[in-house]
Amino acid sequence: MSGRVVTITELAQKAGVSTTTVSIVLNRKPQARRVSENTRKRIWELAESLSYRPNRLALAMQRQSTGIIGFVCGDSATPYYAELTEQLANEANRRGCQLLMTPTVWDTRREIDTMEMLLTRAVDGVIMCSQAFENCSESTERIKRAYHGVVPLVTINAESVDISTVQYDYEPGMAELFEYLRQNGIRSVVLLDDPEFPPKRQVFSRLAGEFGLEPRLVDFSFRDMETLKRAAERIFADRPDAVLATSDLTAMHFCSCAGQAGIRIPEDLSIAVIDCSQLSSLYNPPLSGIRVDPALFIGEVFDELERKINGIPEIRTIRVPSRLEIRNSIKVKL
Amino acid sequence: MSGRVVTITELAQKAGVSTTTVSIVLNRKPQARRVSENTRKRIWELAESLSYRPNRLALAMQRQSTGIIGFVCGDSATPYYAELTEQLANEANRRGCQLLMTPTVWDTRREIDTMEMLLTRAVDGVIMCSQAFENCSESTERIKRAYHGVVPLVTINAESVDISTVQYDYEPGMAELFEYLRQNGIRSVVLLDDPEFPPKRQVFSRLAGEFGLEPRLVDFSFRDMETLKRAAERIFADRPDAVLATSDLTAMHFCSCAGQAGIRIPEDLSIAVIDCSQLSSLYNPPLSGIRVDPALFIGEVFDELERKINGIPEIRTIRVPSRLEIRNSIKVKL
DNA sequence: TTGAAAGCGCTAACAA
DNA sequence: TTGTTAGCGCTTTCAA
User: Fold this and answer.
1) Which CATH number fits domain A169-291: 3.40.50.2300, 3.20.20.70, 3.40.50.720, 1.10.3080.10?
2) Mind listing the pLDDT tens digit for each residue in A75-104?
3) Which nucleotides of strand C come closer than 7 angstroms to any CB of the protein?
């Protein structure tokens, strides 16, 4: 280690010019054309041979901008969020910035700490995918107040009066799904979900009736996978025609329980997934479900964040439509 | 937006003291005890009411340290890497820093750009999980030379003479697996792998013989999943007793192909996985395989990175042992 | 055609 | 008990 790190000052000294000149040349400023051909060449060669690299910290300090976007996420390891996270990181790169991951494991305390940290201008903006911030504890309120004007913020799938949000619109996909279920003679369908996250169940309950389906709710908690096992057992006892799982991970857990209970999917029980990931198609059986095009969704998230970064104050709620993807986890009528 | 951001200077002015005093008080330095009770209180109250937050950029600039660790990873969305990524992020948080994700989609060009970016001291250290950097192109060589002494670096599962690396030791797990296969009457086993990543196949070929197994290699490329389908067909034609898939994602892809071909697992064909993730246990059937304890592994990665950050130059190769996890994807002898 | 100096926000010697 | 000052590496007026 300990190879010397070159600064612009040293470069200037060695080149026998001022730091200004070096800065102008290396940044290819218009004024560089007024620097003599000779000096320019000397500076470039020196920079090359000493592997000069501008110090990002100094730059960031100067511009008051890091080019880093913070991503506060409850969970980044389950397939659905992993996909989202990677695509966000890719889109960030495409737009010339980097994504900083701050997993919070759905822990409000950690979310608050994370936001506190991000509020110190370590990042140019924040994308937040975490419901707990919606809870109105005293500390979240304090942060909400503090963040205004400090860090551009966009939330994902959250509902708030004073923060822009990009949401999945479950309605179109759910309608397609219910129509498909009805056509295949399915009458009763259970939503397997965590009641702490209400958006899906609202659409579910409202739409099921319209399609002549009998809707039921079976709850579990993301925090404790044992509750999912118990929920699965309740479903096995009840024997609906179909189960709609709240996420791909939930669906896989459920299928795993079904396998242990000797229940075949889709022969004995149909299953569909909300928030389908690519991985769903590789499951056995391949899982049908509702999906929002990640590219589209992420584009909206960044567009809105850029608006905030550019100082546009308008609070918007953007909804990205879902659609049904049919694979083999739903029993079809012959 | 546009709420004023408070600096320590303003705070000092309003409090009628110098910035030094404010700095000392707010940072709870030992000298703060020599500041009058009264002044201290005034400063704290002012800071609170104006929601003062120290400017990270200025701090970072001053200390020449950001508290950010860069994670260069070929792929962060597949279950195995998603798990690794999240755990790294968590461990980083636990150690008081943040993880910056820079996905490279196994693209050498992007890896180089990424490293160039990270070399500008935007980060305190880099964890790299990407084989392509091992290739000796002119540009990677230039970067390798440049990074020395600039950014502490630790690679994952790579082999290099001048960079510390933490590796999976496949040997113990593979030995356990082969013993288990042998006991269950399995004779021929195919390794389904990408030849660009040699470590697994070396152990595989060496150990298979010792356990009286007949080893075969069937190759595909991570870059193109069509090659995996073709590889699967070759395996179906060949009909070995068991297949050892190079990753959980590969295994799922393979099982998906098997399902379409009407081949039952494990009745018709056994399968095991290297680089098993948690998700493997939720698959249908639950996948057996070799796994390295992520907590242990990640601890080693960070320990070594911290050594580098603390200026310890010694190049080390650390190997973390794998072990077998038995589930239901291998046909057992009755 | 080039350079000097100020300033970004903060900390830490050194003074008073 | 508190203040002055220099400096972290860079860009950017303004002067020469």
Assistant:
1) 3.40.50.2300
2) 888 898 999 999 999 999 999 899 998 888
3) 1-5, 7-13
Q: How many helices (H) and strands (E) does chain B have?
A: 12, 11
Element (H, E) at A271: strand A270-274
Measuring CA to CA, which residue among B200, B208, B82, B190 is closest to residue B131? B200
Contact B100 A102 (CB under 8 A): no
Residue nearest to nucleotide C13 (CA to C1'): B20
Per the model's pLDDT, the better-predicted residue between A129 and A231 turns out to be A231
Nucleotide nearest to A12 (CA to C1'): C3
Q: Cβ A252–B145 below 8 Å, yes or no?
A: no
| Residue B1 confidence (pLDDT) above 50 | no
Q: Which CATH superfamily is domain A8-54 in?
A: lambda repressor-like DNA-binding domains (1.10.260.40)
Rounded to whole angstroms, the maximal C-alpha distance in chain B is 85
Asked if the domains B66-162 and B169-291 are classified in one and the same CATH topology, the answer is yes
Q: What are the residue ranges spanned by the domains of chain A?
A: 8-54, 66-162, 169-291
Q: Give, as one character, the DSSP assignment of residue B224.
A: B
C-beta of residue B72 within 8 angstroms of C-beta of residue B84: no
Find the Å distance, CA of residue A57 to C1' of nucleotide C8: 11
Instruction: Compare all CA atoms of chain A with the CA of B146 and give the residue at the minimum distance.
Output: A51
Cβ of B54 less than 7 A from strand C: yes
Beta carbons of A197 and A219 less than 8 angstroms apart: no
Instruction: In whole angstroms, give the CA distance from residue A136 to residue A185.
Output: 44
Cis amide prior to A266 (ω within 30 degrees) = yes
Q: How far in angstroms lies nucleotide D3's C1' from the CA of residue B60?
A: 25
Q: Is the CB of B34 under 7 A from strand D?
A: yes
Contact yes or no for B53 and A150 at CB 8 A:
yes
In this structure, which topology does domain A66-162 adopt according to CATH?
Answer: Rossmann fold (3.40.50)
User: Nearest protein residue to C8's C1' (by CA)?
Assistant: A62
Rounded average pLDDT over B59-63: 89
